[in-house]
Amino acid sequence: MRVLGIDTALPFGAVGLSENGQILYEEKIPIRPGGGERIPALIAKALQTVGWRPEDLDLVVAGRGPGSYTGIRVGLAIGKGLAYSLGIPLTGVSTLLALAANYPDWAGLVCPVFDARRGMVYTALYSQDEQGNWVELRPPELCLLAELTAGLKKKNAPLLFVGEGARLYREEITTTLGPAAVFQEGEEGEADRVNGGVLALLGLRRWQEKSENELYTCLPLYLQRTEAEIRWDKGE
Prior knowledge:
CATH architecture of the largest domain: 2-Layer Sandwich
Shape: globular
Number of helices: 8
Radius of gyration: 18 Å
CATH superfamily of the largest domain: ATPase, nucleotide binding domain
Helix content: 25-40%
CATH topology of the largest domain: Nucleotidyltransferase, domain 5
Number of domains: 2
Oligomer: single chain
Structural class: alpha/beta
Distance between the termini: 49 Å
């Protein structure tokens, strides 16, 4: 299958293409907070680079978040619009899982962390089984950083922390977990970015397992209400 992956939940948008389980193209570009206006042009560039037409696609995979509220909606809207116009299925994948899956060679647990402000983080916990499939050990959630580290302290395995929240709270995480906490080194920010090709592969596996077209059912993974929703409930 020829698969397109799109994620706009984070400050760097990602687009990737895969065919028969192999990544053919991936690129990340900075996008304004909540803005994915550059993504359609990047999709066109990706298709042109590998010599495909939009009609050659078999599946669209969209990152569901968490992350920027508007950013998530933009990516889903682009993905759904493209899938609908082409008459092909769409499936959604957590942005947390997509980031964790950048590290298939890590033998321990992977904990992506996104900053949600006020001491709160978006997070989840993953590992790989013997076949290399990603297993969700802790579902995506919004929690206090202290709650996350306290829970992870009980794990008897090395923990790889990735995401901008991991960089931001590195000192606090290390204070609680000590040498069990490992952080991705290298170019600053690279560990914070989704790979669109990896996202495409994750979506392909999900499609192969479920064969469920989520064009009309895939929803943003916000994990908390927007400020507008809170004000609406208060009658403001």
